């Protein structure tokens, strides 16, 4: 065969990747389980480049030049396993099989081991940027062997986004490294969106009903300002609420389809690595709470909020929220990078964080200017935490008053701001010498004789709490 690369799975992501490859002059073999999708792609976009459609996998494999390179872009989970196995039956030693979907990195590790036995290079590639990115240039996070990257990398770099002429694609590391980094990317994206979505919205009293909720910074309206929570929570707009719920349900379903993996949906990621990712976790939990409609409906009419909720200085609040958004984003990045470092150490992946920051600068959804600062800091010295990078720490110090006022105002007015509050708690936790954990150790010794250590001498101790309260070495 003559095709440079093949794509299996021609729903929105696969079709757009195939078109992107064709736009860059590559000949692209096509296969989809339901042939109508293949036909539609060729009918609508066949003139954009060189496509070779096949109606079965044998024909598809025969149409590819060797070593074959195949990107599978189907629904994450069982569909991916079934499809990979079906494709692999037609591959030979040295061919490269790519899963470009949102697989969990443990699945990717398992698949990599199993295909290695057949001599097929398996690549788990995180692809970020949604359908737009897939068509015009995504950020691509491939994991797998160096040999596989040597064959596949140039093609992926070719179709990836470019920032200052550099491709937003790099070899992340072996086996599951690429999908792990993509998972953290999605976690940061959640935390960032959560912070924006829950950004406080000061609005004029009585004039807020029915106004569309704008993403991003709060909208300012003059009048007697007060804080209103997310439109969904306001009384007296039942129809609007229903419409909003239906739309949110649709959005959620769409997102669930798009996001095969959730950052925390399986034990084994942050918890087993011992990395505190509370800001990211809160963002994920906030999503499940918002989808938890039975509980929300039961609670809505029963749980009362605070009486007041006046905000005196709206301009200041808007600026405060801006500070809180920025600081929360920094904490989400700090936790995400810490998580990548821990997973890389535990798995021996050797992930280069500066490179990760570099390829996230374009194509994907989180593209922050902060990434350039991260790239520089890690290229220079690889700090233990982003929060301690001197210029970042200075900016956080400047942002903190507004960040604190935002959380305090939100708490006082009954507006949930989980991402702001969790990130602030993390900031305050890591900057202290001594933590309330000492009290918890004491309580554990009291209730369960679990013993404790002391700051002033070595060893373990137990206090006879219910007796004469003497302390003994344990
Ligand atoms: P979907 O996740 O909606 O999957 C649809 C594709 O999977 C179709 O080609 C469908 O074939 C195929 N498929 C299914 Br479903 N079950 C199959 C099976 N048992 N055997 C063979 N094929 C099967 O497509 P998508 O939204 O394009 O996403 C593709 C991947 O990319 C997913 O893993 C997703 O998580 C990931 N991703 C998506 C986005 C995004 O923004 N959408 C972003 C980044 C990553 P059919 O036509 O025969 O039904």
Plain-language structure description:
The chain has 474 residues and is an alpha/beta fold. It has three domains: 5-175, 3-Layer(aba) Sandwich (Rossmann fold), CATH 3.40.50; 187-430, N-(1-d-carboxylethyl)-l-norvaline Dehydrogenase, domain 2; 437-473, Single alpha-helices involved in coiled-coils or other helix-helix interfaces (Up-down Bundle). The chain has 18 helices and 14 strands. It has helices at residues 12-23, 35-45, 57-62, 78-88, 105-117, 130-136, 146-159, 177-197, 238-258, 270-273, 278-290, 293-300, 314-347, 353-359, 370-380, 390-413, 418-430, 437-448; strands at 5-8, 28-31, 51-53, 69-72, 96-99, 121-128, 139-142, 162-163, 166-167, 201-204, 225-228, 452-453, 460-463, 471-473. Strands 3-2-1-4-5-6-7 form a seven-stranded mixed β-sheet, sandwiched between helices. Strands 12-13-14 form a three-stranded antiparallel β-sheet. The longest helix is centred in the C-terminal third of the chain and has 34 residues, at 314-347. It is globular.
Q: Bound compounds, please? A: nicotinamide 8-bromo-adenine dinucleotide phosphate
Strand order in the largest sheet: 3-2-1-4-5-6-7
Given helix and strand content, the structural type is alpha/beta
Q: Supply Rg.
A: 26 Å
Q: Report the strand count.
A: 14
* Percent helix: 40-55%
Q: Please, how many domains?
A: 3
The CATH superfamily of the largest domain appears as N-(1-d-carboxylethyl)-l-norvaline Dehydrogenase, domain 2
Summed up, the helix count is 18
Shape: globular
Estimated share of beta-strand residues = 5-15%
What would you say the CATH architecture of the largest domain is? Orthogonal Bundle
The main pleated sheet reads as: 7 strands, mixed
Rounded average pLDDT:
85
Distance between the termini: 73 Å
Keywords: Gluconate utilization, Oxidoreductase
Organism: Angustibacter aerolatus
Protein name: 6-phosphogluconate dehydrogenase C-terminal domain-containing protein
Family: Belongs to the 6-phosphogluconate dehydrogenase family.
């Amino acid at each position: 065969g003559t095709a440079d690369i093949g794509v299996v799975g021609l729903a929105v992501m696969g079709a757009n990747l195939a078109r992107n490859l064709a736009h860059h002059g590559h000949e692209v073999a096509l296969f989809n389980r339901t042939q109508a999708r293949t036909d539609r792609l060729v009918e609508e976009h066949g003139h954009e480049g060189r496509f070779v459609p096949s109606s079965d996998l044998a024909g598809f494999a025969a149409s590819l030049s060797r070593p074959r390179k195949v990107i599978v872009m189907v629904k994450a989970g069982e569909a991916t396993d079934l499809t990979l196995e079906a494709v692999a039956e037609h591959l030979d030693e040295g061919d490269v099989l790519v899963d470009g979907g949102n697989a969990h990195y443990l699945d990717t590790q398992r698949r990599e081991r199993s295909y290695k036995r057949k001599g097929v290079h398996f690549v788990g590639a995180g692809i970020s940027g949604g359908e737009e990115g897939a068509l015009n240039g995504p950020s691509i996070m491939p994991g797998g062997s160096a040999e596989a990257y040597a064959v596949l990398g140039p093609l992926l770099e070719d179709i990836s986004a470019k920032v200052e002429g550099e491709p937003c694609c790099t070899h992340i590391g072996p086996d599951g490294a690429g999908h792990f980094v993509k998972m953290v990317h999605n976690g940061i994206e959640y935390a960032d969106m959560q912070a924006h979505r829950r950004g406080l919205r000061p609005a004029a009293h009585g004039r807020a009903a029915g106004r569309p909720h704008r993403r991003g910074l709060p909208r300012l309206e003059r009048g007697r300002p007060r804080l209103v929570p997310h439109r969904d929570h306001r009384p007296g707009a039942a129809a609007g609420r229903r419409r909003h719920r239906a739309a949110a349900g649709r959005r959620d379903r769409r997102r669930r389809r798009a996001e095969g993996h959730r950052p925390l949906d399986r034990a084994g990621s942050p918890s087993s690595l011992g990395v505190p990712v509370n800001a990211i976790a809160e963002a994920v939990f906030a999503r499940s709470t918002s989808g938890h409609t039975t509980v929300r409906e039961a609670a809505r009419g029963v749980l009362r909020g605070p009486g007041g909720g006046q905000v005196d200085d709206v301009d200041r609040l808007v600026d405060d929220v801006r500070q809180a958004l920025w600081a929360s984003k920094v904490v989400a990045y700090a936790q995400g990078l810490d998580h990548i470092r821990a997973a890389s150490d535990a798995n021996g992946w050797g992930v280069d964080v500066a490179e990760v920051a570099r390829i996230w600068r374009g194509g994907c959804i989180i593209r922050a200017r902060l990434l350039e600062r991260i790239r520089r800091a890690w290229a220079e010295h690889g700090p233990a935490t982003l929060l301690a990078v001197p210029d970042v720490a200075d900016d956080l110090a400047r942002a903190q008053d507004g960040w604190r006022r935002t959380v305090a105002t939100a708490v006082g007015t009954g507006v949930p701001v989980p991402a702001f509050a969790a990130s602030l708690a993390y900031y305050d936790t890591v900057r202290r010498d001594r933590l309330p954990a000492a009290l918890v150790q004491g309580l554990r010794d009291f209730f369960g004789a679990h013993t404790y250590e002391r700051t002033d001498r070595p060893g373990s101790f137990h206090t006879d709490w219910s007796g004469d309260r003497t302390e003994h070495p344990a």
